[in-house]
Task: structure prediction
Amino acid sequence: ADDGAGAVYIYHGNPDPNLGVYVKPAQIIRAKDLNEAHTLERNISSFGYSVAGGLDMDLNYPDLLVGSLSDVAVLYRSRPIVNVLASITTSERTINLIKEPFHPRFNTTVCMNYTSTPNSFNEPVNMEFTVRIDIERLENELRSRGTFSSTDLQQDTITKNITLLPQSSGQSACKTLPVYISHDVQDKLSPIIFDLTFDVSKQDTPDIADVLAPLSRFPILNKQIANNSTTGVNISKDCGPDEICRSKIKMNAFHVVLKDWESLSPDSLGVPTLMLGTEEEIGLRVNIANPYPGEDAHQAKLRIYLPPMLQYVGLAEVNLTSANILCTIVDNNASFVECSLGNPFETDSFISAIIILENDATLYTSNGFAVQMQILTSSLQPGHDMNVTYVAQVRVQAQITIDGYTSADQIPFGGKVVGESAVHKPQDAGLYVTHSYEITNSGTSAIDSVYVNISWPQVIHNGKWLLYLLDAQVSGPGATNETICNVPTELTNPLKLKYQPLLSTPTRRKRQAQSGIEPMDKTAASVSPPTSASKILKCDDSDELARCVHFLCYLGTLETQRKVDINLRAVVWNSTFLEEYKGMGEVRVFSNAEVVVSRSNVQYSVSSIRFDEVSTSILSEQVIPPQQEVKLWIIVVATLAGVILLVLIVLLLWKCGFFKRRRDFGDYHKARRHKQASKKADETTEGMLY
Result:
């Protein structure tokens, strides 16, 4: 053993001869301890190679001689063994903190005596003992409820020396110590345990240099006998003769809001609903009672476990009956609250209070939250330490409106057809038009994850351009760096045309005049629109006349009382209207937009408007009245009427003798013009000639 140095193991025998010796050695003698202490002149090895017992080298007790292979033998002399019997008692078995609220005092007494092996030992024995107050709390690293000093509340441990009388005296040695109980004791149910430990004084050991010192003056403690003792002191409680308190604390709670601290309105399923936007500050109304026949609840506490989005602020509307409540946050965590309800929380006590809470921004994105509450007491309590969970769902009150408008209600088309390959800038294709949508948050709370779903009439059924979208611009006080429209440019603007704000409607009208077509007066058109046929093109799945492009504009968080404008700038593709809608007086084209919030906890107010559409009328500058088919019966009636009228005219002329020929013409006279004296006479003469 010990790398060849050697060791000797000594075992004690069991009092019962049938059980042999104890498994655990009573003593281990190691050679390395001798080598390290340089007790011998040389280091030894194979210590324990030979052992000789039963010798009494100093004429008192049996000794032990241990040999080795190092030409060294070591003699171990025996010391007397003392069996110490110790007790610790207190002058009071129960202390009353009500009668003595400030440091009640009593005494604790330690007494000891001994017997020895062999019985011939009859010397005084110096002992050292230690007493600790409230050992159970000290082992749990809690402050003791007692102290050995009236001025030092931290002196919960004391060590003293005591000399035991020779065993032949038959008397015990005792020492009395004063004990003081703290005035602010919280735990009044569990007894205060005094723990006594003792051992032979460390001063009573022989000097290692005095190898021949008599060992009868240096006894050792019998390790087979416990070297400790305990006693306890109870604190008086108003809990009946058995001193066991059986409380019956009852609790109920419900969520409330700031306005008059009313409870949350339940939904159709009875779940309390917090409506953000109308109800900002929230809390918990807690009612706690300990009705008779419930006995005092000692160390009564209420623990509140809040979700991370809620934090404790304080108390409001506290109503107490024979009780008190004090709430604090635990470990600097405002979501973990512990409230003291009194010590004790007496019979028929009642507490009603509101736990005021505040929330952070994450509450707005939550569908709900749960608050756990727990009643704790050191008394016996039915349902002790059970958690009760109070649930509420969260809804965000949103008042969002979308309003659409256009830059031009009516736009003319005309001129000549221009192929797509000849279009190099927007004005080559047609006139500008802008559809704008204004999104407003008129509610009392910000709304995040706001999208606008745009449907844009891009082409007609055969793929020809309708309203050629150039870009989508987002502006307004509610716009942020996150605000963007995800326009599919490969579908909407493959020609990469750029919006040129200086080239607007007047430029287009001038180009039309140069082409030889008289432009339509826009004011007149708006007053008296053409009466010829019209067509409506909408972004409807059932509409086969227009094919729309759908894309999203992400607005992010729309703060309260803020607006965002989405401007969709496009070109009316003139050639498409000339080719496909020639002779059509009006083509009305619609876009639409819908506000979408990608959250399930949003509830819209009745005044919210989340869908709108914008239209522009495209008017032809050359309105050709449509050819109307004449019905057959009208033709027949008109023909008959014409025939009858002709017959009547012929009969009338016949009656007047129009068809009779006169043979005798009479004498003809040559007409001559004579010069008249006045204009009137001349006019009379001309009348006679005709």
